[in-house]
Amino acid sequence: MSTSSPRKKAFVRNIIILVVCALAVFLYVKVKAWSTNESIGMLTSSGENRSYLLYVPDSYSRRKPAALVIALHGYSSKPSDIEFTSRWNDLADQEGFIVVYPAAYFTPKRWRAYATASPTENPQRDVQFISDLIDQLEKKYNIDPNRIYINGISQGGGMTYVVACQLADRVAAVGSVAGAYSFPFDQCTPSRPVPVMAFHGDADPVVPYLGGGFETYRVNFLPAPDWADWWAGNNGCAKATTATQDSEVVRTEFQECSENADVTFYTILGGGHTWPGDPSSTDSPEWGFTTHQIDATHLMWQFFMAHPLATP
Question: Total structural domains in the chain?
Answer without folding.
Answer: 1
